[in-house]
């Protein structure tokens, strides 16, 4: 039963090629027709033979031969002509991947790197001239090669990336590489891995010490008292390098003693003589420095008050053989007089007590400090008027 007909083919020929009807008309046209039983559906037509001239005079051009197909070519002929048509599909060009990048920064073997360092690779280079679509960054810990960071296909950080916080650890060696993908989806080889080592953890300063002795608000302290603080405590386990001791006079906060960085007196120190005064209130504090140079906070200040001056004691002797009267001035508790106190002691002499204060003569130039006591020698004779002595101490 005929489904449809189409004129214009003459005594042509028909082939079924790859599910499509290939027809050659009597006049030399090749026609591709969809094999649809419901209607004639022409896909394409090409005039393979034009029949413009006959090689045999008087013989009309007719295409009655069936086309031949071989190796992607169609061979057709007429009574006077022949032609070969290349109809093979041209293979699409192969997309070549980008070249492997080169790790630039940090340089291979770099040390003391930040935990959020920047990785820098060379520029994108594609043999087909494709553009740079994405990059894949990988960081591995050494020596187990465990992946600690992988970026997947990163379309933003193409030739450099800042390593996100929390991915790396201190004092650890890592290797890294990166590969580039072009705009046609071809991923190139990874760069040759290079290594870096992160910086050690930040040095934490020592904890603030605690003032132990004298206790806060202690009174009657000697001028050369011992200051005692608590033991050194460092969160990193560092050892103690030095201590910085400071004593201030109250209430004006004038510094009367500062030790600088003392490498000998680390948790206790004897206050040097001449720094403190009697009956005076002071505050003190101390800070510790570790072996990595980190100085911790000062201890909380505590206060103490020094002891008052010991009462003066006067002694006198008369040597009968020489007739010399000797006045001795010392501390009542037997401690030696210091030079600061002797400078404030004045001795006066008078031969007539009825003259009142105007009759007293200051004798400071006659005093001698020896064995912690002041002494004054006053020769006595029958011709010498008897003298009276008075001792005063200026505040």
Care to describe what's here?
- This protein has 395 residues and is mainly beta.
- The protein has four domains: 13-86, no CATH class; 103-198, Immunoglobulins (Immunoglobulin-like, Sandwich); 211-306, Immunoglobulin-like; 312-393, Immunoglobulin-like.
- Helix content is 1%, strand content 41%.
- The chain has one helix and 30 strands.
- The protein has one helix spanning 339-342, and strands at 13-17, 20-24, 29-34, 41-47, 68-70, 73-77, 82-86, 103-105, 110-113, 118-121, 132-141, 147-150, 160-162, 173-182, 194-198, 211-213, 218-221, 226-229, 240-249, 254-258, 268-270, 281-290, 302-306, 312-319, 324-331, 345-350, 361-362, 368-370, 373-379, 388-393.
- β11 and β12 form a beta hairpin.
Number of strands: 30
What about the largest sheet? 5 strands, mixed
What's the CATH superfamily of the largest domain, by name?
A: Immunoglobulins
Q: How many helical stretches?
A: 1
Span of the ends, CA to CA? 145 Å
CATH structural class of the largest domain: Mainly Beta
Second rung of CATH, namely the architecture of the largest domain: Sandwich
Enumerate the spans where pLDDT stays under 50 for 5 or more consecutive residues: none
What integer value in Å does the Rg equal?
56 Å
Helix content: under 10%
What is the overall shape? Answer: rod-shaped
Mean pLDDT: 90
Please state the structural category.
mainly beta
Into which percentage range does the β-strand content fall?
35-45%
CATH topology of the largest domain: Immunoglobulin-like
Q: Can you tell me the number of structural domains?
A: 4
Strand order in space, largest sheet: 9-15-14-11-12
């Amino acid at each position: 039963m005929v489904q449809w007909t189409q004129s214009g083919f003459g005594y042509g020929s028909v082939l079924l090629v790859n599910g499509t009807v290939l027809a050659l008309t009597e006049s030399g046209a090749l026609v591709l027709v969809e094999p649809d039983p419901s209607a004639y559906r022409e896909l394409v037509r090409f005039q393979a033979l034009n029949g413009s001239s006959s090689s045999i005079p008087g013989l009309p051009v007719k295409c009655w031969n069936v086309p031949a197909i071989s190796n992607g070519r169609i061979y057709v002929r007429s009574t006077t002509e022949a032609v070969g048509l290349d109809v093979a599909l041209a293979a699409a060009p192969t997309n070549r991947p980008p070249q492997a990048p080169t790790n630039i920064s940090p340089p291979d073997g770099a040390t003391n790197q930040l935990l959020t360092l920047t990785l820098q690779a060379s520029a994108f280079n594609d043999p087909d001239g494709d553009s740079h679509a994405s990059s894949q960054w990988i960081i591995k810990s050494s020596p187990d090669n465990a992946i600690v960071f992988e970026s997947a296909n990163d379309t933003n950080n193409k030739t450099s990336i800042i390593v996100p916080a929390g991915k790396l650890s201190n004092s650890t060696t890592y290797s890294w590489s990166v590969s580039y993908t072009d705009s046609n989806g071809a991923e190139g080889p990874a760069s040759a891995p290079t290594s870096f080592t992160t910086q050690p953890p930040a040095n934490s300063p020592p904890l603030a010490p605690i003032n132990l002795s004298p206790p806060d608000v202690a009174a009657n302290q000697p001028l050369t008292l011992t200051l005692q603080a608590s033991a050194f405590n460092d969160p990193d386990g560092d050892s103690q390098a030095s201590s910085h001791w400071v004593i201030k006079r109250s209430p004006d906060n004038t510094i009367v003693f500062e030790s600088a960085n003392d490498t000998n007196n680390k948790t206790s120190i004897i206050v040097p003589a001449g720094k403190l005064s009697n009956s005076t209130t002071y505050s003190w504090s101390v800070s510790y420095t570790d072996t990595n140079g980190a100085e911790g906070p000062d201890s909380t200040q505590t206060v103490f008050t020094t002891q008052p001056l010991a009462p003066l004691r006067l002694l006198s002797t008369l040597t009968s053989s020489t007739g010399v009267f000797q006045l001795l001035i010392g501390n009542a508790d037997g401690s030696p007089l210091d030079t600061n106190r002797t400078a404030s002691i004045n001795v006066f002499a008078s031969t007539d007590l009825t003259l009142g204060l105007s009759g007293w003569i200051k004798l400071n130039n006659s005093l001698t400090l020896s064995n912690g006591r002041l002494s004054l020698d006053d020769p006595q004779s029958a011709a010498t008027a008897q003298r009276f002595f008075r001792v005063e101490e200026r505040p």
